[in-house]
Amino acid sequence: MGSLFTSFGVGVQGIHASQSGLNTTSHNLANTKTPGYTRQQNINADMPYQTYKVTNKHTSQIGMGTRVDAIRQIRDQFLDKEYRLEFSRQSFYSKLVETENEVEDVFGEMEGVEFRSALNEIWEQIQTLSTDPGSIVYRKLFIAGGEAFIDRAYDVYRELTNYQKGLNDEISKKVKRINEIGEEIAKYNKIITQTEAAGVENANDYRDLRNLLMDELAGLTYYTYQEDVDGKLQVYIDGAPLVIEGKSYHMHCEELSEDTGMYNVVWSDNGFGDVYDLETAYSNKDRTDTGSLYGILTARGRKFANYTDLPVAPKEPQEKDYRDADGAFDEDAYNEAYEQYELDYAQFEKDTKVFNNTTGNSIITKIESQFDRFVHDMVTMINDVLCPNIDFELDGISATDINGVQVDLEAGNYKILDVVNSPTGTDDDLTIGEELFKRTTTDRYQVLVLDAPLYRKDANGDEMIDEDGNPVPATLEFTDSEGNTKYKLFVYNEEQEDDIFSQYTIINLQMNDNVLANYSLLPVKVNPLAGGTGAYAQDMFTDLISNWQKETIGLDPNTLTVYSYDRYYEEMVGALGTQGQIWTSMLERQTSLADDVEAQRQQIAGVSTEEELVSLLQYQHAFNAASRYINAIDQMLQNLIEKLA
């Protein structure tokens, strides 16, 4: 059996364990308000037993007291991961909501008041001019309304693109902070490993600092992580390492293109490329709707979008369009057109998928493409009424333009100005072909000078005949400076998808300076070739008003719904607000989830002063009990020594 000296050791171990408990509890109380602090708890264990007798029936042992086996943190790793996921999603949707609010402000408060006024003005001027086309005042107001419309459209588009570029600073700051957090986590990995290497001390306070960084990192970007047996964290962002043991890897910003100046985020030194996949739409299922940095990149998009980024569904061929005047149906032509339609529609579906993953995935680029489509279709509609085009089959032609430059056109189908039905200006020359809105560096027509006239042909390739039995001209007769009769062919300069300078896009629009300088060039009179005798082209204004109210524009390639110009703008702004409400609901939901999980975390990891005070009293009583135990052993030993003496 044990000696009294052994009993002394048991008492001392009790004092040590109680003292350690008092220290831990005091530490908890002192850090009650410390951000990120995790409650600590002593884990006690038995000292090794001393065996003094072994028989075939039992083993007799003497207890050597208690010891502090570990001082552990009271954390739930599952709740940590759940909180970081929900907080990361909260940060993502917060950026989407913030961006949507900024876009709404660009369009003028909540209902697009500012741009709406410019839209209403040009509509009112069209109606006013139709009542008296001969009024110079009304023509001036109509032109001024058009100028105000494209000026305001340019201002809106410029503010959107400036906001996109302005996000670079925020992206750069977040990338810098992620790099700093990675470095600090790697630093704490080393400290924790060194501190705990001997198995004597736990680096709990350093773990708290590291966990606080992990929480902050979740707000910036979503990540996965794991902890090694020796306490080192490995952190990965979409499979690419940010921290491996004591080493951190960095990311940096680089321009997507020289044209935009917008930043992309790429890895600097771990062998991976882009940090985020910006070619795929964010997904709740794939956990890509996470992190404020990715939220900014998603909301901003990768480019300055225009109307060419918005896929347009091809028109399905109608049988009535393939019947002649006698009702005979051209089945071969219809079938050929329908086969082409099916091919075009398959391509449209592919383009729509790309749109949904890229341009349509960003609130800014989506609204840019929709807004530019609205402006593009409106200005081209007005231009096409003022300067109507027709399809014309050319066998190939060699001529000079009005500047004397040689031009060779290959055989094919071209759009040309309808010189018969095009309205004219009120000037002495009855000028035709003057559009209201023009492309900055591209004229509406390439005007070719021919020595002989060209005439329109019908579907069978025969020359078209007017009511008087004369062939319908495709060229405009004129007399050159030398008194020779020549003919002008107005070949329309088509818009090219890969050439922005050929497009009627917002940033490439301006008023026709010829019309601005001389209001009489605005086409408002009936063409003499169409039987006009000085009358004003009321049919033209009827077409303008009708086309304005006609439902022709699709807002989104994912739906077949089409709108008039008025309705399109309303639906565009309304859809923007609806999307904002959806994201706001998501943000509120994520905020609630993150707060709920954090509350659960704090119930486990947080310090309760009442509980700690109870523990303080328990350890104090245990300390006192161990002291009295030692006193009792001391008295027994003293009494024994005195009697033996």
Write up what this structure looks like:
This protein is α+β, with helices and mostly antiparallel strands and 645 residues long. The chain has twelve helices and 21 strands. A hairpin with a 7-residue loop joins strand 20 and strand 21. The model has no long low-confidence stretch (mean pLDDT 88).
Set out the fold topology.
Blueprint: H1 4-30, E1 40-46, E2 50-54, E3 59-62, E4 66-73, H2 77-106, H3 113-131, H4 136-196, H5 204-220, E5 224-227, E6 233-237, E7 240-244, E8 247-248, E9 251-255, E10 263-267, H6 292-300, H7 331-357, H8 363-386, E11 389-394, E12 397-401, E13 406-409, E14 412-417, E15 437-439, E16 445-450, E17 476-479, E18 485-492, E19 509-511, H9 513-517, H10 538-549, E20 553-554, E21 562-563, H11 565-605, H12 609-644
Helix pairs in contact: 1-12, 2-5, 2-6, 2-11, 3-4, 3-10, 4-5, 4-6, 4-8, 8-10, 8-11
Distance between the termini: 23 Å
Q: Characterize the overall form.
A: rod-shaped
Total beta strands = 21
Main sheet record: 5 strands, antiparallel
Chain-averaged pLDDT: 88
